[in-house]
Amino acid sequence: TDLARIGSRLPDDWLAQLARTPGNPARNAALAPTATEAFTANTILNSFGQPAGYAILRYSREPERTALRAFTTRLAITCAIMFGAFTVLLYAALAWMWRRTDRDLVWAADALFGGAEEAQAKPAPVLVAEVAAIRARLSALDTGLDRVAPRPAEEPF
Questions:
Q1: Is the dihedral of CA 123, 125, 131, 136 positive or negative?
Q2: At a CB cut-off of 8 Å and minimum separation 6, what does 127 contact?
Q3: 49 with 68: CB under 8 angstroms?
Q4: Average pLDDT in the chain
Q5: Short-list 16, 10, 11, 36, CA closest to 28
Q6: CA distance 36 to 150
Q7: Cα 62 to Cα 4, 50, 69, 129, distances in angstroms
Q8: Distance of CA 31 to the CA centre of its chain
Q9: Cβ neighbours, 10 Å, residue 107
Q10: What is the pLDDT of residues 21-55, one digit of tens each?
């Protein structure tokens, strides 16, 4: 790829590295001349299967860096958008669940501390039904206790 270098001798450290890793150009990345230039190498074998030379292709890494920069930018923007969307979705789901739980607890409190008529008029979630069952049991126990030992009359002040 470099007409001035065709037929020229490779540096000795390159030859040693290429001889150590025949057929595996991925392990020759240490021979890259600069951070902006890369190369790929392939061994040329003669008819006896012995190395007769090397074909080395040098190329600029700038298109690679440009593509990687564009990919990273798109990935960061996509992640930020997805994070924002899922955050809003999660907030909406948690707010809905909070309101639902709060509504159930208010209904249970109404059923437990009076306002039974209001609690009965509202849709009866499971918690309200459980509180109503507890109130019925407590009322039955109070009635049973009153039969066994009547309560003394309260004295006026």
A1: positive
A2: 104, 105, 107, 108
A3: no
A4: 78
A5: 16
A6: 98
A7: 22, 35, 10, 71
A8: 39
A9: 20
A10: 655 555 555 566 677 777 777 777 788 888 777 77
Give the integer Cα–Cα distance in Å for 23 and 19: 9
Look up residue 110 and give its amino acid. D
The string of DSSP letters for 5-40 reads GTTPPPPHHHHHHHHHSTT-GGGGGGG-SBTTEEEE
Report the C-alpha gap between 44 and 86 in whole angstroms: 55
Residue 125 has pLDDT above 80, yes or no: no
How far is 22 from 25, CA to CA, in rounded Å? 8
Residue 77: both structure tokens together: 């923007």
Tokens of 119: 């609690």
Measured N-to-C along each axis, helices 126-148 and 62-112 cross at an angle, to the nearest 10 degrees, of 30
Share in percent of the chain as helix, strand, coil (round to 5): 65, 15, 25
Q: Per residue in 67-100, pLDDT tens?
A: 999 999 999 999 999 999 999 999 999 999 999 8
Question: Tokens 């501390």 map to which residue?
Answer: 113
When pLDDT is cut at 50, 70 and 90, the band that residue 58 belongs to is confident
> Residue 24: left if φ>0, alpha if ψ -120 to 50, beta else—which one?
beta
